[in-house]
Automatic annotation (TrEMBL):
This is HAD family hydrolase. GO terms for molecular function: metal ion binding; phosphoglycolate phosphatase activity. GO terms for cellular component: cytosol. It comes from the Bacteria. Keywords: Carbohydrate metabolism, Hydrolase, Magnesium, Metal-binding. PANTHER family: PHOSPHOGLYCOLATE PHOSPHATASE. One of its GO terms (biological process) is DNA repair. InterPro entries: HAD-like_hydrolase_sf, HAD-like_sf, HAD-SF_hydro_IA, HAD_2, HAD_sf, PGP-like_dom2.
Amino acid sequence: MTIRCVLFDLDGTLLDTSYDFAYALNHTCRHYGQDPLHYQDIRKTVSQGGLAMTQLAFPGLEGEELESKRQFFLDVYFKHIDMHTRLFPGLEAGLAEIAERNIPWGIVTNKPTWLTEKLLANISFPSEPASIICGDTLSVRKPHPEPLLLAAQQCGVTADQCIYLGDHPRDIEAGINAGMQTGAAMFGYLPEAASETAWPADYFFETPIEITHFIQETL
């Protein structure tokens, strides 16, 4: 199948947001008298979302007590959302190639709109994404196919002309459900046990520069 559009997951695939998440979560830990966590432990949890990171920091909590700490954590993250977040090194040339060839591209993330808009406001790309779908854009989120199908529609292509790149099995499942080709970003926020045998992706990228080479050679 011909690929005419590239769709990215956001955290752990397009942008390295892990340092700002780690800062916010450890700030939350200190605020509540909890020992800070190791960066690598936080990094492996980022793609599972804010609730999972809060549970990592405060195991055993649930209900309103957990939710209040999650909200505190997200508020800190919002205020410091782009201190260290950058495009993954190696993707710059790939996005420049997309811009030069006028190829549509987009972002499909489960990150809520209020965080996504704040983050992307200070990130510059060679060309603007034709679609940005967030976790609350629709009533369903990945791995449901609808967010990806909406992104394809906004990019002016059919689903089978897209490749969706992500660093979580949920991303690959969503791409398959939408009838897209899929690529696993194995450099992302994966647990230690992650391996290619557990991912039914069409392509595997061990480093961001491999995505750039793929764009340059395949699209």
